[in-house]
Amino acid sequence: MIDLFAEVSAYCRLAVPEEYKRPIAIVGAGGIVDGAHLPAYRLAGLEVVGITDIDLTRAREVATRHGIARVYATLEELLADDRVEVVDIAVPVTHQPPIFRKAVAAGKHVLAQKPFTTNPETARELAALAAEAGVVAAVNQQMRFDEGIAAAHRMVESGWLGTVTSFSLSVNVFTDWSQWEWAQAMERLEIMVHSIHYHDAVRWFMGEPSSVYAVAGRTPGQFPVGETRTTSTYTFPDGSSAFVYANHMNAGNDNTAEFRIDGTEGAIRGTLGLMYDYPGGRPDTLEVTSTVVATDGWVPYPVTQRWFPHAFIGSMGSVLQAVATGSTPRSAVSDNVKTVELVDALYRSMDTNEVVHFGR
Ligand SMILES: NC(=O)c1ccc[n+]([C@@H]2O[C@H](COP(=O)([O-])OP(=O)(O)OC[C@H]3O[C@@H](n4cnc5c(N)ncnc54)[C@H](O)[C@@H]3O)[C@@H](O)[C@H]2O)c1
Questions:
Q1: Residue 183 CB burial class (10 angstroms; 0-12, 13-18, ≥19)
Q2: Where would a tag sit more exposed on the chain, N or C end, judged by fewer CB atoms within 10 A?
Q3: What percent of the chain has pLDDT over 70?
Q4: 93 Cβ inside 6 Å of ligand 1
Q5: Mean pLDDT of the 220-246 span
Q6: Cα–Cα distance, 278 to 152 (Å, whole number)
Q7: What local confidence, expressed as pLDDT, does residue 6 receive?
Q8: What pTM was computed for the model?
Q9: Does the beta carbon of 58 sit less than 6 angstroms from any atom of ligand 1?
Q10: pLDDT at 230
Q11: Percent of the chain beyond pLDDT 90?
């Protein structure tokens, strides 16, 4: 069993080989860059040559805190820097597509925060622009590199559960939305900026659904206008199913974030440590039971890396690997177009109170 876990653990390792490293510049000096991107890049020894933000005071503060040599006065100045090979975009979603277009037109590789756009047409347009320009472009769905999730995916991929029959994820937390002033007016909120990670993970594990259904809720007096509680169900062409529930208005002070994957030969159960105390978090937990690898009951897998900041090494490392070797990033824009389409379908279901069918 320990040998089998060693293979899974090797798959989850987040180091970036020296030969993959390329100079990175960052657009956006907000909370996520300060608290997760830059700490992760420091751990991995990545080279950040400069940063910009429309709030230059903030850019300078973050540059000083993280030892970044250059603050660009504008995006144009950043893109004109020939040293910059990868542009790391982390600004509110409405600002991301114009920055993405300019970066790609300048021949830079791109990693864009999630969601890279709210709109499937724009998602397809941006993916096509990147493909035409011949640059690597990925979306920062770094939950695919969170160790609990990545290890579970490797176990499933290795056949430990036999045929997967269901994926479920349930999150009950309190989120202080007022920390993101731009989130206040977003009518499509919870899935668009948070549960998009979970829905992207459902696609990664289960493939494309044949239909989805979603409902949304709000709490009286809440800060944002958009939904803060969502329930989504999926059916897949092979008869398997998925369920995602996320409640951000938990008044019980007992945060939980649990996932479970069931198959014909076993099951995996785990917790997302980040959501127990966001953004500090705690380690994930992960346990597996399988008749394929004969665990003789539930066995814990030893998680040693966190979602924040470690998984951010993975999303950037995957882009750098693609630049260096021609591989496809784990969360390439071409794939993420389908996540944006899925999110849009979930909102259409909420708006109409009807199941959305994909014709699969
Ligand atoms: N786990 C995750 O992947 C995760 C977590 C949090 C936020 N995010 C995403 O990251 C992005 C940023 O979130 P945040 O928490 O850092 O928000 P934030 O409000 O803390 O910071 C946003 C920053 O972007 C800057 N900005 C806005 N428009 C800009 C523009 N046109 N050009 C340059 N800078 C601009 C703002 O001045 C601000 O400094 C959002 O898209 C959000 O959805 C992802």
A1: buried
A2: C
A3: 100
A4: yes
A5: 97
A6: 22
A7: 96
A8: 0.98
A9: yes
A10: 98
A11: 98
CA 96 to centroid of ligand 1, rounded, Å: 9
Asked if residue 31 has its Cβ within 6 Å of ligand 1, the reply is yes
pLDDT at 153 over 80: yes
Distance of CA 89 from the midpoint of ligand 1 (Å): 8
Ligand 1 centre and the CA of 75: distance in Å?
Answer: 15
Structural domains for the chain:
14-142+313-330 (3.40.50.720), 146-306+340-357 (3.30.360.10)
Q: Is 351 in the pocket of ligand 1 (CB under 6 A)?
A: no
- 42-81 in b/e burial notation, b at 16+ Cβ within 10 A? ebbebebbbbbbeebebbeebbeebebebbbeebeebbeb
Q: To the nearest whole number, what is the mean pLDDT of the chain?
A: 97
